[in-house]
Amino acid sequence: MGTEIKEGLIKELDRRVTDKILEPTNAALLKKLINNAENDNEAMMIAELGTTYKKTGFHFDPRLEKMSNDIRYFKKNQKLSFHTDDNKPTHKLIIGDNYEALQNLLIQYRGQVDVIYIDPPYGKDNMGDFAKTNYQNAITRDNLLSMLYPRLQLAKQLLAPSGVIFCSIDDRNQAYVKCLFDEVFEEKNMITCFPKKGAGGRQDSTYFAIVHEYLLCYANKPEMFKAGEVGIEKKYKYFDENKKLWYNLQLLRKWGDNSRKIDRPKLFYPIYFNSEKNKLSLNKEENSIEIFPMLDKENEGCWRWGKTTMQEAFVDKMVEVKKKGEEYIPYERLYENPEDETSKLYSSWIDDIDNSTGSSLVKAILPKEKFGYPKATDYIFKILRMANCKKNAIVLDFFAGSGTTGHAVLDLNENDEGNRQFILCQINEKTNENPNGIAYDVTSKRLKRIMTGKCYDGSKDFPWLNDNKPYGGNLDVYEIAKVLDSETSKGKTPFDVIDETLYGKEKFKSLKEKVQWVCEKFSNARKHL
């Protein structure tokens, strides 16, 4: 927050004049008003008045944000935050209006976010009946565009120079939202619009079964953006950091013909696995688990190798053990051929992901909670791959919903030993299904369970654990608090309640430094310096 926003808005007005989108006289008046705006919110609303595409006839009637003299700031929720591993990144969940969340994120993350994905609430029932959403409980098209415009302006300032933003949208709103993205991110910075094939037709389809949606993609600076490629990661699921090679896993026991013990009795013998040391051996050691090649719980199978080959594979780290439920299963690593040059560009047509799997996954994690139409983790995982999401990337989703983007980041980190950080923003919208609010009942609980293996009440009774190991890691949960800009009570002023450490700063050594920082970063505080 601060002068950067006003300067950015004025620069945007100049661009619109150059592109003959905005009349010079109108731009001059808007600049004057922006320069005299009392704070960033007011400046954003003034700039929004100039959002008109005269060349195409695109226009919407702005619904302006409510103004107040409150200062909105991050306050840590200690009960929902948790820390499990100093060696893993600390992710963030921000509960509250994403407009205020984005303003606060700019204090620390301006120009640092590598990938943004959003799935905004664009309504339902073909834009007919009002949808129950977090924006005035009514997503008409003007409300949708008015809600998105200032948030996209803030998101643009968060993007790194090589950053990219993706937006899911349905077929009825794609044209309008694309025009808005053209306005904010510039049409020349559009990478593509991905058509996404779904699993089946909508129930309300009258003439044709609608089985598609869209994914808009814009780069901050296309000349600095490098898209991911289909290649090694398409063929191979795992990455060996030591060997710097990708690999797949196949069962170490024999399968198919001659896979029973009676077929190859010499290939039926125990191997031993020490889970604490992650060590495999042919000889029993202390705290080791005995593993036989079983076809199932009752039928004995056989290994694919004899003891000599098995021992060589242990030494070469060619065998990996994964836990599935209470069972430990050994696999052979099948490494890529470094000379296999098969990389190619991703297709702009997405037809290999079924988003309906998102619901079954959420149900496995939160069997007692309800959340409609969550995106599939595999879908966001693929988007991160298409974005060439580097291992230390910052990934933002400011319409987090059930937290699928966070889940996908954890999955990708697990896949290639990355240290990506996710930042999720979700308003705590209360519904009949989520009486405590979506952020409390769904988003935070999902992250807690998949990261730690248990919920906040200590319970572990959810099916996801039967087939998955918790990701670990750390989560800071913030809520949007407010303080009057004119508050003077001892211990309650903005300079007392705002915690600079939540914005990546060390504690200030003097009150003078703290006051100067607050007044610089929180625009409403300037009037009462």
CATH superfamily of the largest domain: Vaccinia Virus protein VP39
Indicate the percent of residues in helices: 25-40%
What proportion of the residues form beta strands (DSSP E)? 15-25%
What would you call the structural class?
alpha/beta
Strand order of the largest sheet: 3-20-4-19-18-5-6-8-7
List how many beta strands DSSP finds.
20
Overall outline: globular
Topology:
Layout: H1 3-18, H2 24-35, H3 40-48, E1 52-53, E2 58-59, E3 70-76, E4 90-95, H4 98-109, E5 113-118, H5 141-158, E6 159-169, H6 174-185, E7 190-197, E8 212-219, E9 229-230, H7 232-235, E10 238-240, E11 245-251, E12 271-274, E13 279-281, E14 289-291, H8 307-315, E15 319-324, E16 327-335, E17 344-345, H9 357-365, H10 377-386, E18 394-397, H11 404-416, E19 421-426, H12 438-452, H13 464-467, E20 474-484, H14 494-497, H15 511-521
Parallel strand pairs: 4-19, 4-20, 5-6, 5-18, 18-19
Antiparallel strand pairs: 1-2, 3-20, 6-8, 7-8, 9-17, 10-11, 11-16, 12-13, 12-14, 15-16
